[in-house]
């Protein structure tokens, strides 16, 4: 009888590392504005908004378009002025309407770097996002793009005595809800497992419903797995924004 060489259990370890994200400010030339948008109508010396700037629209029908390559995108904005306003906005990807964002109409006090929109994971490739103001005002701050699929896997052979990988951990970070406000984002499909908004999601063609997670990697290979992703040309955009005061 022919015997097969068998590898010791656990000798193949799958190492994962979180893929990079880029912050695209509202002033980025790649964002195309149509309508009566106004860039930085309010001074922001303390950088409450990302990079200290925000773009404002008070005309229903104004749009902002951004084409990106990746698997995830989030849209963040602000509630700059206390008062009562209609702040309804809608979002489409690749020509398909995906969501409407309807925050509470009353702003008790300003809030910054708030998540307005985040669809399910998209098929890896080029996509076009269109943001449409449907209310009396909208304060757009930045978009956050995940460059490729949610994780990069590498199968690595290691000695049996080193085969025990560190326990997996996951973490989720999201913008805080505006003070004394409730927001609704309407989708079609199944909601993600964690979000501060009331949501229903639509499954996009070629998309996965899973959300990105941060998974522990083996320390002595982490730099090798990530070195190709952290180039000098991306460094300024990979740096995360200052935390909200």
Describe the structure.
By secondary structure, the protein is mainly beta. It has a domain at 24-151 and 175-213: Jelly Rolls, CATH 2.60.120.260. 6% of the residues lie in helices and 37% in strands. The protein is built from two helices and 17 strands. The protein has helices at 219-226, 232-238; strands spanning 12-18, 21-25, 32-34, 38-39, 55-57, 63-70, 72-79, 83-84, 89-93, 96-103, 106-107, 111-117, 125-133, 138-146, 151-157, 183-186, 198-199. The chain has a seven-stranded mixed sheet, with no helix packed on it. The longest helix has 8 residues, at 219-226. The protein starts with 11 loop residues before the first strand and ends in a 7-residue tail after the last helix. Residues 2-15, 150-182 and 187-236 have low confidence and may be disordered.
CATH superfamily caption of one domain: Galactose-binding domain-like
- Helical segment tally? 2
Strand and helix order: EEEEEEEEEEEEEEEEEHH
Q: What top-tier CATH class of one domain fits best? A: Mainly Beta
In one word, what is the shape?
A: globular
Q: Beta fraction of the residues?
A: 35-45%
CATH fold label of one domain = Jelly Rolls
Task: Determine Rg (CA atoms, Å).
Answer: 21 Å
The largest sheet has its strands arranged as 3-6-13-9-10-16-17
């Amino acid at each position: 009888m022919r015997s097969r060489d068998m590898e010791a259990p656990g000798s193949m370890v799958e190492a994962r590392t979180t893929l990079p994200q880029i912050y695209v400010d509202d002033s980025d030339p790649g964002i195309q504005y149509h309508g009566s948008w106004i860039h930085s109508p309010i001074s922001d010396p303390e950088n409450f908004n990302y990079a200290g700037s925000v773009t404002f629209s008070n005309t229903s029908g104004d749009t902002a378009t951004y084409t990106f390559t990746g698997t995830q995108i989030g849209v963040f904005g602000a509630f700059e002025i206390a008062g009562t306003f209609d702040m309804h906005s809608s979002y489409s990807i690749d020509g398909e309407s995906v969501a409407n964002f309807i925050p509470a109409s009353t702003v008790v006090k300003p809030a910054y770097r708030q998540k307005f929109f985040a669809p399910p994971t998209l098929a890896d490739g080029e996509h076009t996002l269109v943001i449409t103001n449907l209310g009396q005002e909208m304060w757009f701050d930045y978009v956050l793009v995940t460059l490729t699929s949610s994780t990069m896997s590498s199968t690595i052979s290691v000695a049996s005595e080193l085969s025990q990988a560190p326990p997996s951990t996951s973490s989720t970070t999201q913008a805080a809800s505006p003070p004394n406000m409730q927001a609704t984002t309407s989708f079609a499909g199944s909601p993600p497992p964690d979000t501060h908004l009331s949501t229903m999601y639509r499954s996009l063609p070629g998309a996965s419903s899973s959300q990105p997670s941060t998974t522990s990697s083996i320390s002595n290979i982490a730099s090798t797995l990530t070195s190709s992703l952290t180039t000098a040309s991306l460094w300024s955009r990979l740096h995360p924004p200052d935390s909200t005061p």
